[in-house]
Amino acid sequence: MNIENYTSYAALSKAVAEAMIAAIKNKKDALICVATGNTPIGAYQQFVLDVQATGLDISKVRFVGLDEWLNLAPENIGTCYQFLHNYLFNPLQIPQHQYKLFNGLAKDMKAECSAMNEYLDLEGPIDLLLLGIGMNGHLGFNEPGTPWHYRSHAINLSETTQVVGQQYFNAPMELKKGITLGPADLVRSKKILLMANGIHKQTIVKRLLEEEPGIDLPASLLKNLNHVHLMTDLTV
Ligand code: F6R
């Protein structure tokens, strides 16, 4: 894991947006996996501005969503569906055939996971994976304890994730379950950017840097990989 320090959230966001653009310049139909949450907002805003300013051709780019809350209608403000539409797909008018997202309302979760795995088998591997880190070290919704050979799966969310997740909604929500790409597909990505910003992430980033890799700290999966960049505005 390479550590890249940035002096501000704006600088970090700019660097992530530049990496997105570089991936697309390198491969017109790059497959980019996009996390949601507070961390990547600046990067997506910068990416949208850069694409609009330069006219970069993104008509072949493919986006895949990292995860989704289960049992919430997509129009809920805090869903990954809604987030990605607000920050990326709507501003850039990206049509539906260019993105693949989990359906958090799917009746058959096994089938939903198989469909995502088939998509990745056909369209993958991911060229650029953008990740945030959870307060408990989760990646996507790969919570502590998730075996690293798992592919897409539905999961009971940890207490921490259920509580922290409330911030994305404008009313209290039941956030008991999620669906996520699994560790096995994450590590197969060609380039991985793990973003960590804000002082509230200091403790988990310190754990990531100090602890031996193990499934209790999902982000530690990335520790021994050369194609991972920890991008942070924290002093680490
Ligand atoms: C969201 C996701 C989560 C977040 C993580 C950090 O799609 O996959 O793993 O990246 O919970 O969230 P923020 O960025 O809000 O601190």
Bound molecules: fructose -6-phosphate
Order of helices and strands: EHEHEEHEHEEHEHEHE
Compute the separation of the termini in Å: 13 Å
Strand order of the largest sheet: 1-10-9-6-2-3-5
- Relative helix content: 25-40%
SSE order and pairing:
Layout: E1 2-5, H1 9-26, E2 31-34, H2 41-54, E3 62-65, E4 67-69, H3 80-89, E5 99-100, H4 109-123, E6 128-132, E7 153-156, H5 159-164, E8 177-180, H6 183-187, E9 191-196, H7 202-210, E10 228-232
The structure holds fructose -6-phosphate.
Features:
binds fructose -6-phosphate; 7 helices; three-stranded antiparallel β-sheet; single chain; alpha/beta; 236 residues; seven-stranded parallel β-sheet; 10 strands
Account of the protein in words:
- This protein has 7 helices and 10 strands.
- The protein is globular.
- Strand 2 (31-34), helix 2 (41-54) and strand 3 (62-65) form a beta-alpha-beta unit.
- The protein has 236 residues and is an alpha/beta fold.
- Helix 1 crosses helix 2 (41-54).
- The chain has a 7-stranded parallel sheet with strand order 1-10-9-6-2-3-5, sandwiched between helices. Strands 4-8-7 form a 3-stranded antiparallel sheet, covered by helices on one side.
- The model has no long low-confidence stretch (mean pLDDT 98).
- Bound molecules: fructose -6-phosphate (F6R).
- Residues 35-39, 66-67, 80, 132-134, 138-140 line the site of fructose -6-phosphate (F6R).
